[in-house]
Design goal:
Chain B: Keywords: Cell inner membrane, Cell membrane, Membrane, Transmembrane, Transmembrane helix, Transport. The complex is a heterodimer of chains A (about 325) and B (about 325). Chain A has 15 helices and 2 strands. Chain A is mainly alpha-helical and about 325 residues long. Chain A has a single domain, classed as ABC transporter involved in vitamin B12 uptake, BtuC (Orthogonal Bundle). Chain A has a two-stranded antiparallel ribbon with strand order 1-2. Chain A is globular and about 60 Å long. With about 325 residues, chain B is mostly helical. Classes of the chains: A mainly alpha (about 325), B mainly alpha (about 325). Chains A and B meet through helix 6, helix 13 and helix 15 of A and helix 6, helix 10, helix 12 and helix 14 of B.
């Protein structure tokens, strides 16, 4: 049953030997979704390809996109990070709390949040590798700890960021928003890290088989810890972007955005394997954009928020089912 | 460091002490933790261990304990069920609208809800095993679909109310002379706990669940229909979520947030009980003990006057600690 699907998909899967599959099919799906969305909106008498619309979609992709890149990195390493939502909140609150609307304290605020990101990433990574706890439980635990401390200290919007800092959320270079440039830079950096550095190759090896990687001389624990630090740092960037849009941070901005499960969903829609060892940041970017285009169409048609949630669930499962069908030959035979 | 052999000429009391120690070590550690927490609570509040308050405590535990007893099947089979929280909410909201305060509706409503829960479990199972979508994503999708569909149907907010004979399961009990009221919820919890324990530990199906999670390939080769066993585990989890929803609806009444966070609490309870994410290990009894421990820790922290938010933080630390201990034991036993 499984061998019959082997030959047609073989050439595609050889696109990127050794480092997981190519992101081409996801971009293909994105193209299809984009075309259908365009057609639907135009048939409805609306305009899809306006600068406003495209900017809107791009900016909406930034918050999820940044953290989804980090999530992709840990997923490739065979791990998972459920604490990113509260990392986003911790960043947003501590940035606006430290800055207090003072432009001179911007650098300090950014430094504090980056330090917090490194700290949380280290804790996540060390708890997973040293105590040998499943990443799901470990990051659920650290997430609860962060939420508890944050909610005990702050109950509402706290402090504010200076107007200069809001440039990150609102300014544009020509037609391209600054935030979109930030996202593209992070994607490019992550791509380079995964495909051109020793760490990247080790990460795919660890995610594919930690035991084999270890026996081949990879310091697997170090790789996983590094991946978690990078992931927390992307959550910090999402938090900084959000607080620059909102002007002030509150403890619920992260969980309300659902960044924990949504970032995992986006990465998986983008072709990253939850089991590790396979995935690309370009694919994740496509996954995020697919979700953003669908959202834009929902808004255009003023779809009920609950129907939106429902359809989102179907899309996420459907996309993953499609990839699973393609990769069937890799699966275990029962 | 496992069991140090006693020197030949040990005094009698010392030997019996070591026997007691060995006996103690045969008990799953979660029961000892539970006992310790209950002793601590009783020390702060001696009335807690009197029959009536203790039964009230057990009634409060019942929904989470039933959820954990169902979730443990899915976890042992090597999967996750993230949809149970949304299912609990769905049960409460659907029951309120269909019951509409009319006692005559209850007799068909409960079988209908159970059928719905079984269907949700079946879909989770089939999407996971047939479409090969990782259960994390499949049940995440189900979470989105359920929470979208239920509120789409009920128009955004729960409507209607639960009939008294529907609420009695979570609220009332049978009068027992000399003991006070024995809540139905506790009876239901005991019945389900014993039933599921027998199913998991004393039937062919139960052994197959362990086999399917411990080593699916070996299980498949020795004739276990892994996909069917895993699907059945999801159905059990769905049914237990319905029971939990009925109990919770009776106890707390109708809210749109009835089941929020229960999926993570159920998984945490199962892990506290020594189950290992990834499958093959765990038991119904220990999962129940995990749920009781989680709830009793909440009670204790409440007694100590800790804020709700800090309770979250402590819960996070406990989850990490329990998982670390389980991992440590697993390594030591090879």
């Amino acid at each position: 049953m499984t061998t019959s699907t082997m030959s047609p998909s073989a050439p595609l899967r050889l696109a990127a030997p050794g480092t997981g599959s190519s992101s081409a099919p996801v971009w293909f799906v994105f193209g299809g979704v984009f075309a259908v969305a365009w057609l639907l909106v135009e048939l409805n008498g609306g305009q899809f390809m306006t600068v406003d619309n495209l900017q809107n979609m791009a900016v909406r992709s930034v918050a999820l996109g940044l953290v989804a890149v980090g999530q992709t990195i840990v997923l490739i390493g065979g791990s998972l990070d459920l604490s990113v939502a509260y990392m986003v909140s911790v960043t947003a609150v501590s940035a606006s709390f430290v800055m207090q609307g003072d432009p001179d304290r911007m650098a300090l605020g950014i430094a504090v949040t980056l330090a917090l990101g490194v700290g949380v990433g280290l804790v996540n990574g060390l708890v997973i590798t040293r105590l040998r706890i499943n990443a799901f439980i470990a990051t659920l635990g650290t997430s609860l700890v962060m939420s508890g401390i944050l909610n005990a200290l702050f109950t509402n919007f706290t402090g504010s960021v200076p107007r200069e800092f809001q440039a990150l959320g609102y300014n544009a270079l020509g037609p391209v928003p600054v935030a979109v440039l930030l996202l593209l830079a992070v994607v490019a950096l992550a791509w380079y890290t995964l495909r051109r550095t020793r760490f990247g190759y080790h990460l795919y090896a660890v995610g594919g088989s930690a035991e084999v990687a270890r026996l081949s001389g990879v310091r697997t624990d170090r790789v996983v810890v590094t991946a978690h630090v990078l992931c927390s740092l992307t959550a910090v960037l999402t938090g900084l972007f959000l607080v620059s849009r909102l002007r002030s941070g509150a403890p619920w901005v992260g969980p309300d955005g659902g960044y924990d499960l949504e970032s995992i969903a986006a990465a998986v829609v983008g072709g990253t394997a939850l089991a590790g060892g396979r995935g690309t940041v370009a694919g994740t970017l496509a996954g995020v954009l697919i979700l953003a285009v669908v959202d834009q169409v929902f808004n255009e048609f003023e779809v009920n928020a609950f129907l939106k949630t429902l359809i989102r669930g179907v899309i996420i499962v459907g996309a993953v089912a499609l990839y699973a069908l393609r990769n069937r030959r890799d699966e275990e035979v029962f | 460091m496992t069991v140090t052999a006693p020197p030949p000429a040990t005094a009698a009391p010392e030997r019996s002490a070591s026997r007691a120690w060995r006996l103690l070590r045969a008990v799953p550690p979660i029961w000892l933790v539970l006992a310790a927490v209950i002793v601590l609570i009783a020390w702060r509040n001696p009335t807690f261990v009197e029959p009536a308050p203790f039964l009230a405590f057990l009634r409060r535990c019942a929904p989470l304990a039933v959820l954990a007893a169902g979730q443990v099947f899915v976890i042992i089979a090597g999967e996750f069920d993230l949809s149970v929280g949304a299912l609990v909410t769905a049960v409460v909201v659907v029951a309120a609208r269909l019951s509409d305060g009319d006692a005559g509706n209850t007799w068909w409503l409960i079988p209908l809800l159970l059928a719905g829960g079984a269907l949700v479990g079946l879909v989770n199972g089939l999407v996971t095993t047939r479409l090969r979508v990782p259960s994390f994503i499949a049940t995440l999708g189900m979470l989105l679909v359920l929470s979208g569909a239920v509120f789409l149907w009920s128009g955004g907010a729960p409507r209607g109310s639960l009939a008294d004979n529907f609420r009695q399961f979570g609220r009332f009990g049978v009068e027992i002379p000399g003991l006070g009221q024995l809540p139905y919820a506790v009876l239901i919890l005991v019945a389900i706990g014993v039933g599921l324990w027998l199913l998991l530990s004393h039937t062919r199906f139960g052994h197959q669940v362990y086999a399917a999670g411990g080593n699916p390939r070996a299980a498949g080769l020795s004739g276990v229909d892994v996909r069917r066993v895993r699907t059945a585990a999801f159905v059990i989890s769905g049914l237990s979520a319905v029971v939990a929803g009925v109990l919770l609806g009776g106890f707390t009444g109708v809210t749109a947030e009835a089941g929020v966070g229960y999926e993570f609490q159920a998984i945490a309870a199962v892990v506290l009980g020594g189950a290992v994410l990834g499958g093959g290990r765990g038991s119904v009894g220990a999962a129940l003990a995990g749920a009781l421990t989680l709830q009793s820790v909440f009670t204790l922290l409440n007694l100590l006057g800790l804020a709700k938010s800090l309770r979250d933080a402590v819960q996070g630390l406990i989850i990490i600690g329990a998982a670390a201990y389980a991992a440590h034991r697993l390594r030591r036993s090879g």
